[in-house]
Amino acid sequence: MRDTLAQGVARRRGEGLLRSRRGEVEVSASCAPLHDGDGTVAGAVLVLRDLTLQRALEATGRRAERLAGLGSVALGLAHEIKNPLGGIKGAAQLLRGAIDDPELVRCTDIIIREVERLDGLVEHLRELTVPPRLELEPVNIHRVLNDVLALQRQAPAWGETTLRVEFDPSLPAVSGDRAQLTQVFLNLVKNALEALGGRGEIRVSTRIETRYHVRRGRGRGQFLLVVVEDTGPGVPPDDVAQLFSPFFSTKASGSGLGLALCHRIVTEHGGTIAHEPRPGGEPAGE
Known about the structure:
10 strands; Beta-Lactamase; 3-stranded antiparallel beta sheet; Heat Shock Protein 90; about 45% helix; 3 domains
């Protein structure tokens, strides 16, 4: 700004981090002089542009490219795995009906259960690589969230978890696939619940995002923001960049497909999904 005032020329400093109440925000900065009636520099205007959404959209594009490259390989792999799994399960079921030894029965039950688990993973892989066919309709997002929360509160893992809900009652219905959106929020709330281990707080809030708009024809559309937060230990900084990548998981027993599938569904709806640490280090998913 000093150079602009001294020389009377516009400057574009570039990009950097700005500290705010929400933490560090990546911004671009530009400065232009203000001239009075005599052409003398009377002041300067500094413009800061929030790059948060731009970076989120860029990351979404990169993930979509990676998934597109994975798609044909994953579909072929899923097909080749699914066929023998059916044979293994059928043979194990026949064997189970032909034996009486309790130990051998237990072993065949393990085979059947593990085959079913692998079959579920293969199905998730197929869903990840094939864009879902969205059945779009007006959806009350609060009804979807209330259904998900009511379901999860019945789970044994809920324990002593407390819940805070902050819904904006003025939000309009959104155009979306109710079943697919339910899958997204169910996955996010389950992840938060697992991170807490039965103790802590989950906070779910909604609002209209006022920082950004989307051009639609001659008008402007708005983002509806859903935030799922928890007071768990959070995600290690080194893992954040891979959080929505296929087969990446911070849990020992995780498949690494849940958040990748959430990312695919949200992207197909024209939205973005991101992890954002809250002030104080507590994690949030948007």
